[in-house]
Amino acid sequence: MELVEKGEMLPLMEEFYTIQGEGHHTGTAAYFIRVGGCDVGCHWCDVKESWNAETHPPTEITSIVDNAVKYANTIVITGGEPLTWNMDPLTQRLKERGLKTHIETSGAYPLTGVWDWICLSPKKMKLPKEEVYNAADELKVIVYNQHDFKFAEEQAAKVSESCELYLQPEWSRREKMMPEIVDYVMTHPKWKISLQTHKYLNIP
């Protein structure tokens, strides 16, 4: 559909007001907009139902913005992989309403949209575009096994010096990997630990 390709409509999976559970803004209230569509294919993804964009109805961005403005000053666009789509129209309208725009992305597609905060969570299967490395405010690497520490360092070398660095255990492996992450951060203090605190709090 032409309107979807232009970003005037987006395959909306869900939208909800909650507490940001991960990374730099952990503990702050935010309105989440989850956009369907992702071909990165992380085997441990906890929202695989977001992958197929065709299962999520194309929704006009004006209605998405009208809903968002009711709840919060900070809007987090997530997925799926939101950069699959043109984020310029949505972020422009959010900014016109005075809202802060955050994105959580693998960076696998060209950067579109106007962002106050870019959380880059790179994946080995489809590495980020250089422009997303350069623009990232926060690098969040998911740690599933020991090899991910090497991957994290490779990714950290590609972002700016001001980018904050986080290691986050994959949820199903948190008990096994957390001691290793703690040890790693203590010996490599440029990194911080991110936890999926919303899961501990039992909120979305």
UniProtKB/TrEMBL annotation:
Subunit structure comment from the entry: Homodimer.
Gene Ontology BP annotations: tRNA queuosine(34) biosynthetic process
Gene: queE
Similarity comment: Belongs to the radical SAM superfamily. 7-carboxy-7-deazaguanine synthase family.
Cofactor note: Binds 1 [4Fe-4S] cluster. The cluster is coordinated with 3 cysteines and an exchangeable S-adenosyl-L-methionine. Binds 1 S-adenosyl-L-methionine per subunit.
Biological classification of the source: Bacteria, Pseudomonadati, Bacteroidota, Flavobacteriia, Flavobacteriales
The keyword 4Fe-4S is annotated on this UniProt entry: yes
Protein name: 7-carboxy-7-deazaguanine synthase
Organism, scientific name: Zhouia amylolytica AD3
Domain Radical SAM core residue range list: 25-204
